[in-house]
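Notebook entry, structure prediction.
Reason for the run: the old model in the group folder had no record of what sequence produced it. Starting over properly, with the input documented here first.
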Amino acid sequence: MRITYNAPFTLTYTLVCFIVVLLTTGLEIPGVLSFFTVYPFNTPYMQLVDPLTYLRLFSHAMGHANWMHFLGNFSYILLIGPILEEKYGSKLLLEMSFITALITGILNASFFNNALLGASGIVFMLILLASFTNVRSGVIPLTFILITALYIGQEIYQITKSDNVSQFAHILGGICGGIFGYVFSGNKTLKKSSNQDTGALGV
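New structure, fully documented this time:
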């Protein structure tokens, strides 16, 4: 019996975010969290001439405000991620997460005054994407409709409350997951690509 690195994207993403929250919350190294937070455009941290501005559009998905924030997100990611990585492959799941983080970062920086950090958008992307598992091409599953109604509907309701949680990021992440699921559902080549990804990185 051996331990395998069975889900390279999920495990590596978890490790990176763990290190970030350890540096910012555990060791409390000042200034580090600013590199993993996206701010509104034209604020001191988000000048268009600053290369770090473009890094933050992605890196905000690796920052977390505290350990509870981190644990809340990765209890979902570690549960759902390996299943989706088996279906879609590590590379494609990484690309989906990058796109979700980028879109969420750009729109939040453009239209909202609050800072944004955390993997919540990717969590919702994975949840909606999971509802398309084992679905034939061109078919919208009832589970997707129900999950959308439950999760997205709840986030729309929560918008009316002031709780320092970005429901916008959750909703947008869910929309991305739904689009990815519909586009890639029924692709028979994904299983083969997935097996190649995980096999090459086993230890």
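Summary: The longest helix spans residues 67-88.
The old model has been moved to the deprecated folder.
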